[in-house]
Write a structure and sequence with these properties.
Blueprint: H1 2-33, E1 39-40, E2 55-62, E3 65-72, E4 80-84, H2 93-99, E5 105-110, E6 124-125, H3 128-135, E7 142-147, H4 149-158, E8 164-170, E9 187-189, E10 192-193, H5 204-215, H6 223-231, E11 251-257, H7 265-275, E12 280-285, E13 298-301, E14 304-307, H8 312-333
Parallel strand pairs: 1-13, 4-5, 4-7, 6-9, 7-8, 8-11, 11-12
Antiparallel strand pairs: 2-3, 3-5, 9-10, 13-14
Domain BAAT/Acyl-CoA thioester hydrolase C-terminal: 124-292
Protein name: Acetyl esterase/lipase
InterPro entries: AB_hydrolase_fold (IPR029058), BAAT_C (IPR014940)
Length: 335
């Protein structure tokens, strides 16, 4: 009997070694094959290598407030634009580079992964925004731009802060979803986790496929997971951001791409608009992907490769429309 058990254990161990070896071979192949085909997310920004005529760029490190402050020498537009990136960890400094030369003051912020912040996107205290407002001397006319998870954050903050007068949401979320820890909310308020959407069992299988792709470094997206979550939610109001609490005078401009492979931003943008139709504009970017503003379809962050959708041509066209609409709306809002 003992020899039989040893034989079984030996077979199991050999089987596991074969599986692990196969996974490592697949992962190695993907790492080499996609080596020069991805855009690698930069979690730092060297202002010494960036010069913008007539714009001062300041590194901000004050409590939980970390990022970059773009201050034009000749500020020609009212208010301040606060910018949030997505779950990949960037602060979208390109936004400051693009719009500060036009006379806008822009503050691009990290909300995790920097000094005095959670190391990863999990249970981030939204009170860091109070410190950002204090840093800016409590302005009463804010525009907040957010992309992806940053759009989720921007929308959430707008339900709580009256100083936010204008919102630009790029690939937004209508609900609060977990961050990097699946069992935990991405956000906390007063030390308590903010309610997330329910994750139905129908989402488990596509989630396993998603994590397998991450394990072997195969380009992947989260779209199937989120599609299943939304389609099978028994109570769609659980975890939904109560956008009806946002003052009707707040301007809201949303962009959503039809080939977004990270999450169903068109569906979620329509949910937002259905619950808050007044003063809300939604621009659909046909054929574009989740990160249409970069010239790559694949991004790499934290050792994982993501396919974000679209084509180089449709993404370029989407960015041109996106850029012109933002410039038009900012000029109208921030006179």
């Amino acid at each position: 009997m003992k020899n039989s058990n040893k034989h079984i254990v030996k077979k199991i161990m050999i089987g596991l070694l074969i599986v692990i070896s196969c996974l490592l071979v697949i992962r190695g192949y993907h790492s080499i094959y996609y080596l020069n085909k991805t855009y690698k997310i930069k979690h730092t920004y060297d202002i010494n290598q960036t010069e913008i005529a007539d714009v001062q760029i300041k590194t901000v490190q004050s409590g939980m407030v970390n990022g970059y402050h773009f201050i034009p020498d000749h500020k020609t537009h009212n208010g301040v634009i606060i910018v949030f990136g997505g779950s990949e960890g960037e602060c979208e400094q390109w936004f400051g580079e693009r719009y500060s030369p036009l006379g806008y003051e822009v503050l691009c912020l990290y909300y995790f992964g920097s000094d005095n912040q959670p190391a990863k996107l999990s249970e981030v205290p939204i009170e860091f925004f109070d410190e950002a407002l204090a840093y800016l001397n409590n302005p009463d006319d804010l525009t907040v731009y957010g992309v992806s998870k940053g759009a989720e954050l921007a929308l959430l903050l707008a339900t709580r802060y009256d100083c936010i007068k204008h919102l630009i949401l790029n690939e937004p979320s209508s609900h609060i979803y977990p961050g990097m820890d699946l069992g935990k909310s991405a956000w906390t308020e007063h030390g308590e986790p903010i309610q997330t959407a329910n994750i139905p069992k129908e989402a488990y299988l596509p989630a396993l496929g998603f994590f397998y792709d991450l394990l072997v470094k195969k380009p992947t997206g989260c779209i199937k997971v989120y599609d299943n979550i939304i389609a099978n939610q028994k109570d769609s109001d659980i975890g939904r951001i109560n956008v009806e609490d946002i003052n009707e005078e707040v301007d809201m401009l949303m962009f959503a791409a039809t080939d977004d492979q990270m999450w169903p931003s068109v569906t979620m943008a329509n949910i937002i608009k259905d619950h808050r139709p007044v003063n809300t504009e939604l621009i659909i970017l046909e054929g574009a992907g989740h990160m249409f503003h970069i010239d790559h379809l694949l991004i790499e962050t934290n050792g994982c490769i993501f396919y974000t959708g679209g084509t180089l041509e449709t993404n370029k066209a989407a960015y041109q429309l996106f850029d012109s609409e933002i410039e038009h709306h900012l000029n109208k809002w921030c006179q």
